[in-house]
Design brief:
Blueprint (H helix, E strand, L loop, with lengths): L1 H27 L2 H8 L3 H8 L2 H19 L7 H14 L1 H14 L7 H20 L9 H17 L1 H7 L4 H19 L2
């Protein structure tokens, strides 16, 4: 019973931390608000997750693992992968908000979990490099650069929805047109 309660408490803390960090960033997030939202003792947060920076790192790390499991890079179906990526971020905008806040906080400084993050992205780059080696996608752009460009195109709408609304429009037909444009741009980037 106690182990199940501890796991339930950790899950509530995690969910509250995702929402708090996505809303307020690292500097603006408050452990008190996370504890209140999770209906947990503040000391438990420190016991389970460490300090605020460590909690943020664990939250972002798990969110990225969830994304990688849900939407693996697929060089054999770049358009389908981009569709799944855009759908994932539309359903889980907090991940991109967390990444954006991390960028504001750390800039170009080394991240606390940078080695793990490099491994995370190295697997994605390797998938694209394999697609290039097999001739499925063009090797005109280095695989790491190509991944960065494809992710940027797919994610920017979620990161700055106000820009998409102002530039592209707010209707479903506008969003569909933009998605088709992203896919066309991706097709051209990877075309052999």
């Amino acid at each position: 019973m106690a182990a199940r309660d501890a796991e339930a408490t950790k899950a509530r803390i995690f969910d509250a931390a995702v929402a708090e960090f996505a809303r307020h960033g690292i500097a603006g997030a408050r452990i008190d608000r996370i504890a209140a939202e999770a209906k947990a003792n503040k000391q438990l947060i420190y016991a389970y997750y460490g300090n605020k920076a460590e909690l943020f790192s664990q939250v972002l790390g798990r969110c990225m693992v969830d994304l990688a499991a849900a939407v693996p890079v697929d060089p054999d179906d770049i358009e389908g992968w981009l569709d799944r990526l855009m759908d994932y971020h539309a359903a889980h905008p907090e991940l991109l908000r967390l990444l954006y806040w991390e960028g504001i906080e750390y800039g170009t400084a080394e991240l606390p979990d940078e080695a793990a993050r490099q491994e995370h992205y190295a697997r994605k780059v390797a998938a694209l490099r394999d697609g290039q080696r097999r001739g499925v996608i063009s090797d005109a752009i280095p695989a790491a650069d190509l991944l960065f460009l494809l992710i940027a195109m797919a994610n920017w709408t979620t990161v700055v929805p106000q820009m998409a609304r102002i530039l592209v429009g707010a209707e479903d037909t506008d969003r569909a047109r933009l998605r088709a444009s992203v896919q066309e741009a991706a097709r051209r980037l990877v075309a052999r």
